[in-house]
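Quick one: co-fold with inosinic acid.
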Amino acid sequence: MQDDIEKVLIAAPDIHRRIGEMAEEISRDVSDFSEGLTIVPILTGAMIFTADLMRKIPLKMKINLMTVSSYPGSALRTQGSTLVAKQLGDVQGRHVLLVDDILDSGGTLKLVVPVLQELGAASVKICVLLRKDRDTAREVHADYVGFDIPDEFVIGYGLDYDNVYRNLPEICTLKASVHSPSD
Ligand code: IMP
Ligand code: MG
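Sure, here it is.
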């Protein structure tokens, strides 16, 4: 796995330091919600980020799930976002913190935010670990952004290429030979 990495873009200690800052900011912002918070990771990519983030927010919260597919198989650009599954329970009247790994074309958030609003969420805040340096990403509102990164394909810390590399502890780029083999 390590042989496929081109370079480390964000090292693990930097990720964890930044998540600590984000968790403090979120905790301050939502501490008035007496009914507590519902955290909704967009699977599969946000799984690892959410697991670390939620353990740093010392408030009552429920967890619900949504699964969206936008980079099926070995795609390096979004193929359009599809809601594959949702396990949302009763979000009616709940304050929702939607968590995704990366904001790229914005298609995923444009798909899922209205779903939560239609189900009657009291509010929907958006938290992403990464945002790519693209107009489409900046045009979509995000309340909390961990890192702005160059418009490159990245893997690790939940992000995959063809469903592999999610377990890398840092954010990396992939060697061109892996995603575009010469033979
Ligand atoms: P968007 O819908 O184009 O904003 O992209 C969001 C989703 O696409 C993320 O939740 C990721 O699952 C996936 N994605 C976007 N960029 C990358 C990348 O560089 N590497 C891996 N997955 C990505
Ligand atoms: Mg995703």
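If it helps, Residues 42, 45, 68, 100-101 surround magnesium ion (ligand 2) (CB under 6 Å).
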